[in-house]
């Protein structure tokens, strides 16, 4: 049981070190299981709960995994995989469990998925993953509580994704990497994290072309080998710290190699936030009232749905009316009711939200409904008068490493409380 306490009113100032990307490291752990020889080394690994669950899953199927937290390094030896079962008690706790399926298919001939978890975000099924496996020659048996995927060998095929899901793209690339022949994936995801996973797989010996074009070709190879790879910085973590500087009228330097916030930066600039690139450091400053904003979430390179919830918090403090259209996940607006408890004025109608600001926020007892609404409530607490208590803090820890100490280093008054259930 994890709870966060945040006492607002302090402008954040200093340097924030951005963690490795959650959405890159999880498929990389799955990719490390594709090779039967050698030990894979992943660096700049975020020490988050989803990584811990991934380590538990990898261990459950027979991999030897060493997580060196102080060095933010994972060492994975997948030479002795022995179980095709992704046990429900682990798998249901995070959605990334599905990324282990390709390795189990290639190494053991089957994968038994007892549960797939993650955040409750409405219609977010995994049908296109399994339809892709079928097109590659697998047999998929979907029960009420278990999904059983079997394949004596996969064969290349032409695949089309109804939506350019980064998880779906990564999963099918991994499945195709060791399949016989050529696989073409149309309408593939364009995210930088997908390109980072492709970079790692290419180092491992995979033959992949077209990354970043939406049209990926994979020429199957007979085997892959272990490599060392450094995980890219987390764009979402960086976006949150940029917003924290904005809503507290502070100044924060973001440190992360090759950091690029893309459209999120442009939207924050429209609201009055200043950005300055100083070599490898991105400086974020806000010393003026925030202006309202219009947002439509979309797949990359559009505005990331994962940052829509934190931006709703920023919009609540802007001087005017903001409009948000959520086009990706229909469960993203659970945050609105929690923000309204704190004094915000957010009205939701279907996939659209109207945020009327600026409304002074007051600390309250609120609940994180998912990872992104949880971190949005932390931001609200930083700007609110008094104390904000956020329950279900485990969800926040799924995606942000050492959040409380990193924010305290910037002057925030925030503590994490952990108790037995």
Automatic annotation (TrEMBL):
Keywords: Cell cycle, Cell division, Cell shape, Cell wall biogenesis/degradation, Cytoplasm, Peptidoglycan synthesis, Pyruvate, Transferase. It catalyses: phosphoenolpyruvate + UDP-N-acetyl-alpha-D-glucosamine = UDP-N-acetyl-3-O-(1-carboxyvinyl)-alpha-D-glucosamine + phosphate. Phosphoenolpyruvate binds at residues 22-23. Coiled coil: none annotated. Cell wall formation. Adds enolpyruvyl to UDP-N-acetylglucosamine. PANTHER family: UDP-N-ACETYLGLUCOSAMINE 1-CARBOXYVINYLTRANSFERASE. This is UDP-N-acetylglucosamine 1-carboxyvinyltransferase. It comes from Nonomuraea corallina.
């Amino acid at each position: 049981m994890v709870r966060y306490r945040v006492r607002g009113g302090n402008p954040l100032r200093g340097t924030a070190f951005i963690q490795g990307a959650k959405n890159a490291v999880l498929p990389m752990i799955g990719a490390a299981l594709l090779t039967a020889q050698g030990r894979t080394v992943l660096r700049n690994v975020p020490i988050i709960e989803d990584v811990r669950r991934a380590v538990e899953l990898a261990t459950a199927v027979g991999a030897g995994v060493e997580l060196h937290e102080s060095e933010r390094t994972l060492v994975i030896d997948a030479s002795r995989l022995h179980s095709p079962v992704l046990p429900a008690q682990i798998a249901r706790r995070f959605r990334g469990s599905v990324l282990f399926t390709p390795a189990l298919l290639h190494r053991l001939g089957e994968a038994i998925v007892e549960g797939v978890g993650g955040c409750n975000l409405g219609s977010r099924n995994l049908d296109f993953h399994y339809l892709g496996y079928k097109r590659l020659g697998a047999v998929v048996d979907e029960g009420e509580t278990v999904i059983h995927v079997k394949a004596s060998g996969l064969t290349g095929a032409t695949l089309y994704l109804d939506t350019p899901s980064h998880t779906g793209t990564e999963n099918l690339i991994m499945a195709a990497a060791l399949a016989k022949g050529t696989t073409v994936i149309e309408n593939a995801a364009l995210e930088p994290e997908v390109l980072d996973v492709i970079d790692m797989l290419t180092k491992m010996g995979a033959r992949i072309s077209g990354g970043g074009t939406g049209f990926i070709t994979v020429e199957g190879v007979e085997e892959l080998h272990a490599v060392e790879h450094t995980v890219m910085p987390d764009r979402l973590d960086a976006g949150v710290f940029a917003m924290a500087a904005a809503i507290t009228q502070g100044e924060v330097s973001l440190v992360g190699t090759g950091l690029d916030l893309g459209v999120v930066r442009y939207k924050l600039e429209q609201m009055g936030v200043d950005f300055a690139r100083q070599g490898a450091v991105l400086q974020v400053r806000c010393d003026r009232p925030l202006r309202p904003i219009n947002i439509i979430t979309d797949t990359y390179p559009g505005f990331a749905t994962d940052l829509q919830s934190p931006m709703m918090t920023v919009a609540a403090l802007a001087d005017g009316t903001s409009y948000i259209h959520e086009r990706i996940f229909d469960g993203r607006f659970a945050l609105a009711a929690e923000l309204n408890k704190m004094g915000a004025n957010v009205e939701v109608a279907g996939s659209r939200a109207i945020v009327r600001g600026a409304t002074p926020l007051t600390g309250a007892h609120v609940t994180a409904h998912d990872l992104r609404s949880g971190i949005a409530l932390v931001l609200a607490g930083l700007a609110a008068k008094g104390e904000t208590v956020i329950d279900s803090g485990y969800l926040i820890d799924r995606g942000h490493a050492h959040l409380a100490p990193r924010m305290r280093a910037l002057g925030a008054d925030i503590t994490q409380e952990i108790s037995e259930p």
